[in-house]
Amino acid sequence: MENQVQNIKVLFLHGLESGVQGSKANYLRKNFKEVCVPDLKISVYKLNKQNSILRKLLFNPKNWLSPRMAGLDSLQCCVDIAQQQIKQFNPDIIVGSSMGGAIACSILAGLKEKQFQKGENQWQGSVLLLAPALDYYLQKTWNQSLQEQWKQILAQNLQNSTNRYDIQIYHGDLDDTVPLQNSNDLIKLCPQIKLEILQGGDHRLNSSLIDNNKLKEIIIKQVQEYQQKQGIQQQPK
């Protein structure tokens, strides 16, 4: 397709009730030649989605009567799918939207092996989080103690790998699904994360990033700056 960026590999992690044919996924395919959009099979209530929270709650005996365990199981299965695709595709940038942003953060924190523990993540590159539903998801499914433990693991892993990642958040100030304060809290915990507040932006951010083609520009700029910092000789076409 004309005007496609040729040599930036984009891996997109979709939101909770979205999928591989969502508006952002299709936008990225239109504007970048190499795009990977793994099907995370996630939802809250849809039983036909393999990793839906309700399905994990009802069909896995260890999760019965435990939304926390079902939420963790669902998140871990999504992390496993994403990690496999990251290893195979080796993207230049990971773009995570809403729940996809929470999954991306979980990968950076090293969530692995269906356990809540510090782990290893070998990938390095740029990470773009669009209204990440991190606190939103944790508050819905985990108790306060586990929320704080997860956040501390994330902060520790990021502090120990400052040169491996360039992480940026774009969040609308009119987001009534995932409050902007969630991203403000995240950058207080991890100061190396950059936050850009989009005035008038809602949760979907389509009018702020898609309709004006701004998302393409943001991705190109972020990847260029990271590659220059790392001394990688590659310029997007």
From TrEMBL:
InterPro entries associated with the record: AB_hydrolase_fold, FSH-like_dom
Pfam families under this entry? FSH1
Cross-referenced Gene3D superfamilies, in alphabetical order? Answer: alpha/beta hydrolase
Protein name according to UniProt: Serine hydrolase domain-containing protein
User: Where does the record place the Serine hydrolase domain?
Assistant: 6-203
